[in-house]
Amino acid sequence: MASLKTFTSCFVISSLLLACSWFVAIEAHGSAPIVKGLSWTFYESSCPKVESIIRKELKKVFKKDIGQAAGLLRLHFHDCFVQGCDGSVLLDRSASGPSEQDAPPNLTLRAEAFKIIEQLRSLVHKACGRVVSCSDIVAISARDSVFLSGGPDYDVPLGRRDGLNFATQDATNANLPPPSANADTILSSLSTKNLDATDVVALSGGHTIGIGHCSSFTDRLYPTQDSTMDKTFANNLKKTCPKADTNATTVLDIRSPNKFDNKYYVDLMNRQGLFTSDQDLYVNKRTRGIVTSFAVNETLFFEKFVLSMTKMGQLSVLTGNQGEIRAKCSVRNSDNTYIKLETEVEEGIEALSLFK
Ligand code: HEM
Prior knowledge:
mainly alpha
């Protein structure tokens, strides 16, 4: 008994030491630099109210259904990881073929999230004209989703432009790792985007809110139960998903499913992470200490999450004269009949003035 106690206390102390040493190491990490073309005050004169308009509207949306916050946070992640944060995930399929939205990882994005972004765009453009990009609206909405669910508030560098094309199905699948991926796979996949182990663990903390479908995790239950999963947790998941292809959902963070906090990491320490990509962060030696440090220190998690989100939010952005400011988030301007008509009328007026 005494030896068990000694072992347990040694384990706890060594976990905390690991967390402490990691904490010292990341202090030198510094703050995320801002990329050329983006700015903290981008809409200061062209649309000074953009952020307050979005926040006010989202407060109303979340009051009715806080679940929408998770949908909007995930939308920003799926936008940024595929071809950069250029709003390409918002584009509907076109004559040229299926869009990013048709790729398997995007099929579980919430339809409401797209509608909310379009509603916000309409409000913002009504107030300021067509000056704010859809990709910036997505980035601001993700920040507000975090904050209004109880997480940190932070400034978002702005000035993204919207892309003219969406990515192929192959590119979409290749850039969004599946939930069955282990930590080594996620680490190497995200390192291609200059995101390190701290970023991987911090960004995965986005799973502190929201839901997942059975198909995203039943490979851990059937035919054999994943040995890294807590038995009671697994039995409860089996009740939600009696068969691998059940179309039900469950929460990502059993301790506080709608609150943006550090409980996701406490779940992982208790073998209650939903996806392999979550739980393996506590199995893998390279990420385990980071998980522990976030589980014991929420302030540290919030600080690192903001840094990593700021990095993610600037991946391959279009700025300056690149891309465009879409008049409707789901359609590029050259395919937008309203804009086409507007341009034709303008050209007609110009032509007429030549005869005067
Ligand atoms: C690191 C690799 C990641 C993987 C493998 C992954 C995978 C997934 C999967 C499979 C789902 C559930 C889909 C479903 O079954 O409905 C999900 C949901 C979610 N993910 Fe991730 N994700 C990752 C990273 C992130 C990041 C970086 C964020 C944001 C910072 C994020 C935020 C979310 C949110 C908020 C939900 C819940 C969405 C909702 O309730 O509608 N994920 N993720």
